[in-house]
Specification:
With about 110 residues, the chain is mainly α. The chain has one domain. Helices cover about 80% and strands about 0% of the residues. It has six helices and no strands. Helix 1 runs antiparallel to helix 2. It is elongated, with a radius of gyration of 15 Å.
Length: about 110
C-alpha cells in the first residue's frame, strides 16, 4: 500500500501545479494527493513518510516551469501535516531510529 500511495502523491502534485490543465483536473489532482496523504497518516508508515519527503523534495528541485507553485504546495502539505496529523503519527515517526525494538520492522527484516 505504501509504495502505491507514494507513487500517487508526486504525480498528483505535478498535475496540480501545471497551469495548462483545466481547473477541475487540477482540483481532482489535489483531491487525489490529499487522500493519499491522509492514508499515509492513517497507516502511520514511517518509511513512506521518509520516501514522501525525499520524493517531493527531488520533484520540487527538478520542477523548473512551476517551481514557485511546487514550493507553495510543499509548504501547504507540511503545514497541513503539522496541524492535522494526530500525535500518534508523530510519536511513531520519532521511533524510526529504533527499528531493532519494533516487531513490525524486524518481521520484515527476518520474514
Amino acid at each position: 500500500m505504501a509504495m502505491n500511495l507514494l507513487a500517487v502523491i508526486p504525480l498528483a502534485a505535478s498535475f496540480a501545479v501545471q497551469g495548462r490543465l483545466r481547473p477541475w483536473m487540477r482540483l481532482l489532482a489535489v483531491a487525489a494527493g490529499g487522500l493519499a496523504v491522509t492514508c499515509l497518516v492513517v497507516s502511520h508508515s514511517r518509511g513512506e513518510m521518509m520516501g514522501l519527503t525525499v520524493g517531493l523534495g527531488l520533484w520540487t528541485v527538478r520542477e523548473r516551469a512551476y517551481r514557485g507553485r511546487a514550493l507553495a504546495l510543499g509548504a501547504a502539505l507540511a503545514l497541513a501535516l503539522a496541524v492535522f496529523a494526530p500525535r500518534s503519527f508523530w510519536e511513531r515517526s520519532e521511533t524510526v531510529g529504533q527499528y531493532e525494538q519494533d516487531a513490525s520492522a524486524m518481521g520484515r527484516v527476518y520474514g
